[in-house]
């Protein structure tokens, strides 16, 4: 499972970085979203990966996963969601005001 | 437990929320509420400074949960100093905004309060994850404020600023994940304690996290390879916003001071050496900033590059990683924040009175009030370039003195002194172009309003006070530096829960 997990994080981050380096705002925002997915999954792993365990304290289960990274990921997801919404609005505004969806406001130069 | 510690967070939070609810009310109500909240922060911050100056760091346990399990706020000398500086700068910036900047876009006052909430929170928190959360709060407010007023240049600068900082936030989270994965805690005091007994397998990973954090904080502080966003963003921002943002780069510097000095420098081990990583980058930042100052063709661009130079100088002094270097750096931090803040306001005042040329450094109509603006510009230029007798001189002198103990003394002295010379030349040229090389016609007859002169002059008066009370200020920063280097005091203050536990058990 560790291998699958790390491959997923790697692919997400690689795709995210590739898209962030694009010149148009829409791929950049998609890239930021993918990057934040990768980061959130990574944060989740910082509490160690466990299978066949329960998130609740039950008498028959002795090994519990660490709840703190889950709380951190939740916070990070909420913040990332808000930021993405703002970036989309800003990109739309930039497209309207600058007449181009290039990240520099104009192609070339 | 002193409940005033949380006041610098509650005041702007409540005021900001009220301002959102009072959307329908007139601008006068919003201004009164915003100004009341911001002005109230000054005595609160000064009171906390008085408490912190007594010695031990004061800790506030939210919900009375004992550290390291609950969230803590910590006020030590450094936090208190930053809080006072923020509140003073915010007052000046808001007063200036009342002159008309606040009506150029929606929700200025609410955003301003949330910005203060984020900044104060970043200075107070004793927990790495809350540092991230407060960074995000101050960032999302700054994303809106930087685009405040609208216009193509602002939107373009805001887009770059937002994307860069979102990537920075992702890196921050990765670093936090690594820190939690290796040590199992994010409470700063707990980290500082556990780092000493870390097993040797994870030291490498932990150092990676330290360097990633240096990248994140370097991005906020505009350290060289990460600082190219700053001039475009600051020069296009509305003047009062740019003035407040003078503290934003210092938030990055504060985070480096707090996190790296507390956690990643282990004097007994081969911890991350700030001298090796920070000093060369900081010196390169000074060089780049100086080139920018000389090359700038517009006063606001000049001031933006002066901010870059100030960050470089500040981090070079921090990079000395000696107590004297830290003390000098903190004095310089206060000085440079006040001066660059006032310069942003001044550049706006000058630009307004020069007709179509705005603040461009070229032949133009003369300003309407040359005596007032000329005097303010002269004082600010002397202060920012580090000429005697103002606080810039005291600050630079103490940094140069502290550098004598370093092995890199030649390059530090050389770069700082030559940079100072170029800044003097560039500012003389700017002053000449604005006040002397003028056409016969006069610019727009828009007098400086009383509050605008008060805020700009007030910040400059702050640097004068910093000069007059230089000895006391340096004593305070020296004590702060000593406190920063004695990590055990911080750890002991935060993790001293025994009294809490006993009190909880007696209640039962």
CATH architecture of chain A: Orthogonal Bundle
Shape of chain A: elongated
* Count of alpha/pi helices of chain B: 21
Alpha-beta content class of chain B: mainly alpha
Cα(first) to Cα(last) distance of chain B is 20 Å
The total number of structural domains of chain A is 1
Helix content of chain A: 55-70%
Tell me the total number of β-strands of chain A.
0
Q: What fold name stands as the CATH topology of chain A?
A: Helix Hairpins
Strand order of the biggest β-sheet of chain B = 1-2
Nearest-integer average pLDDT of chain B: 89
Which structural class do the helices and strands of chain A define? Answer: mainly alpha
Major sheet characteristics of chain A: none
What is the strand tally of chain B? 4
List the uncertain runs of chain B.
500-508
C-alpha Rg of chain B, in Å? 22 Å
Quaternary organization: heterodimer
What's the alpha carbon Rg of chain A, rounded to whole Å? Answer: 19 Å
Question: Explain this structure to me?
Answer:
The complex is a heterodimer of chains A (109) and B (508). Helices cover 66% and strands 0% of the residues of chain A. With 109 residues, chain A is an all-alpha fold. Chain B has 21 helices and four strands. In chain B, the strands form two sheets. Chain B has a two-stranded antiparallel ribbon. The radius of gyration of chain B is 22 Å and the shape is globular.
């Amino acid at each position: 499972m560790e291998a699958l997990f790390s491959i997923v994080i790697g692919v997400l981050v690689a795709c995210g970085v590739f898209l962030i380096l694009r010149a148009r705002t829409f791929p950049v925002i998609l890239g930021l979203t993918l990057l934040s997915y990768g980061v959130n999954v990574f944060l989740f792993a910082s509490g160690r990966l466990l299978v066949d365990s329960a998130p609740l304290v039950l008498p028959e289960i002795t090994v519990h996963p660490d709840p703190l990274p889950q709380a951190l990921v939740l916070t990070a997801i909420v913040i990332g969601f808000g930021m993405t919404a703002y970036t989309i609005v800003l990109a739309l505004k930039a497209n309207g005001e600058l007449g181009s969806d290039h990240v520099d406001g104009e192609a070339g130069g | 437990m002193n409940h005033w510690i949380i006041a610098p967070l509650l005041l702007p939070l409540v005021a900001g929320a009220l301002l959102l609810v009072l959307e329908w009310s007139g601008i006068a109500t919003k201004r009164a509420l915003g100004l009341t909240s911001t002005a109230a922060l000054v005595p609160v911050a000064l009171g906390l400074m008085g408490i912190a100056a007594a010695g031990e760091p004061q800790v506030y346990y939210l919900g009375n949960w004992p550290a390291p399990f609950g969230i803590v706020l910590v006020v030590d000398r450094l936090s208190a100093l930053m809080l006072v500086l923020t509140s003073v700068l915010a007052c000046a910036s808001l007063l200036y905004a009342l002159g008309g900047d606040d009506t150029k876009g929606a929700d200025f006052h609410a955003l301003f309060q949330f910005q203060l909430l984020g900044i104060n929170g970043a200075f107070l928190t004793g927990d790495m994850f809350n540092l991230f959360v407060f960074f995000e709060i101050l960032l999302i407010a700054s994303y809106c404020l930087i685009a405040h007023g609208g216009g193509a240049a602002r939107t373009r600068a805001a887009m770059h600023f937002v994307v860069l900082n979102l990537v920075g936030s992702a890196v921050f989270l990765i670093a936090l994940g690594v820190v939690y994965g290796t040590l199992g805690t994010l409470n700063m005091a707990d980290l500082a304690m556990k780092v000493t007994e870390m097993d040797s397998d994870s030291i490498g990973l932990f150092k990676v996290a330290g360097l990633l954090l240096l990248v994140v904080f370097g991005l906020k502080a505009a350290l060289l390879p990460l600082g190219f966003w700053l001039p475009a963003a600051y020069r296009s921002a509305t003047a009062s916003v740019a003035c407040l943002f003078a503290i934003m780069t210092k938030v990055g510097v504060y985070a480096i001071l707090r996190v790296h000095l507390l956690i990643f420098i282990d004097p007994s081990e081969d911890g991350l050496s700030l001298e090796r990583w920070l000093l060369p980058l900081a010196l390169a930042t000074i060089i780049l900033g100086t080139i920018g100052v000389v090359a700038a063709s517009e006063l606001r661009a000049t001031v933006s590059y002066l901010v870059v130079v100030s960050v470089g100088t500040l981090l070079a002094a921090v990079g000395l990683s000696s107590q004297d270097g830290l003390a000098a750096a903190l004095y310089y931090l206060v000085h440079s924040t006040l001066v660059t803040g006032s310069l942003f306001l001044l550049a706006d005042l000058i630009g307004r009175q020069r007709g179509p040329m705005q603040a461009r450094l070229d032949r133009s109509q003369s300003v309407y009030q040359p005596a007032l603006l000329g005097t303010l510009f002269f004082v600010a230029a002397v202060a920012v370039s580090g000429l005697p007798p103002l606080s810039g001189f005291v600050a630079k002198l103490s940094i140069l003195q502290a550098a004598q103990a370093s092995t890199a003394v030649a390059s530090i002295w050389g770069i700082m002194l030559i940079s100072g010379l170029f800044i003097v030349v560039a500012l003389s040229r700017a002053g000449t172009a604005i006040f002397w090389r003028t056409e016969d016609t006069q610019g727009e007859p828009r007098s400086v309003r009383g509050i605008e002169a008060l805020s700009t002059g007030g910040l400059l008066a702050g640097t004068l006070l910093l000069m007059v009370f230089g000895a006391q200020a340096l004593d305070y920063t020296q004590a702060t530096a000593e406190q920063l280097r004695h990590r055990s005091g911080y750890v002991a203050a935060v993790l001293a829960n025994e009294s809490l536990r006993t009190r909880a058990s007696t209640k039962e």
